[in-house]
Specification:
The protein is built from 13 helices and seven strands. By secondary structure, it is α/β, with parallel strands linked by helices. Strands 3-2-4-1-5-6-7 form a seven-stranded mixed beta sheet, sandwiched between helices. The structure holds guanosine-5'-triphosphate (GTP) and magnesium ion.
Length: 319
Amino acid sequence: MSPTLAQRADALAAALDAAGDRLPSTVTDAPRALLTRVRERAGLSAEHTVVALAGATGSGKSSLLNALAGADLAGTGVRRPTTSHPSAVVVGSPPGGGDPGPLLDWLEVARRHAVAAGPGLPAGLVLLDLPDHDSVVVEHRERADRLVARADLLVWVVDPQKYADAALHEGYLRGLAGRDDVVVLVLNQADRLGPAERDAVLADLARLAAADGLPRARVLAASARTGDGVDALRDLVRVAAERRESTTRRFGADLRAAAREVADACGTTASRRPRAVVADGLVDALAAAAGVPTVVDAVRRSAVRRAGAHIGWPPVRWL
Ligand SMILES: Nc1nc2c(ncn2[C@@H]2O[C@H](COP(=O)(O)OP(=O)(O)OP(=O)(O)O)[C@@H](O)[C@H]2O)c(=O)[nH]1
Ligand SMILES: [Mg+2]
């Protein structure tokens, strides 16, 4: 684990321990599960970058995976939904020689295709084709959710019909607010739109993403059918895999968001019952855990919720 990510995880763990059972499990369960994921991922190959193709049924995740890989590996179809189990395309053997097996076991991806590295596909790239997140089949959603929570880079594949669906925006993208660096939105099936229409849908998609809290997320048009835009997407994925920063970025952003939520919960509690909480040492303990004593004053001023959304709560700004 990079020191920064490890330090962030340790600090959040210390803050949760300091809070003890003063915070309800509804607040602490998600950050604790996140800490587990971060630490598990840290023990797995750092040479591999996991890129998930997520989205609604029929948007073209499997078709785009095939287009990116330049081979017919994932089953596509007109029957909906088509993909019931995720599959992985593992590119080459990275320089460090890390074994992707344990990583794929952790992801619970049993279907694996190995392809040779090439100019557009760097060794160490792992492309995942996910089942549909809006599925009528509950297991599909669960399998997709597991991977959305664990992938390093999330490529959301949308189509002209479904790009504005609440299942995507309310169900997923809002929960990823602030993770602009690790979210890419691809408007697939762009061949079904004229140029003006395509630009209008792209602009609308970018506007919706900004409203979801992802103003800097990359948005691009593609067609798995004609190949338009596939090179641009492959390039973006290639750069992410070559830099090997996506794991740190993804989980770093998750830790920051989790810390903000915990801080916000403390602030809410503190401003409602300031004496009880401050006297009982929770805030002092959190501040000590975070190494930022000014937190006590900050909470007393009840500035937490106002400041939290924009600059982060003082004790967790270090995250
Ligand atoms: N016109 C057009 N059709 C496409 C494109 N991409 C995929 N399709 C078609 O859309 C249908 C669904 O494609 P899939 O790749 O199976 O979609 P999926 O997102 O993997 O769907 P699930 O596995 O059910 O979640 C297939 O009939 C594809 O041939 C595209 O860019 N343009
Ligand atoms: Mg599919």
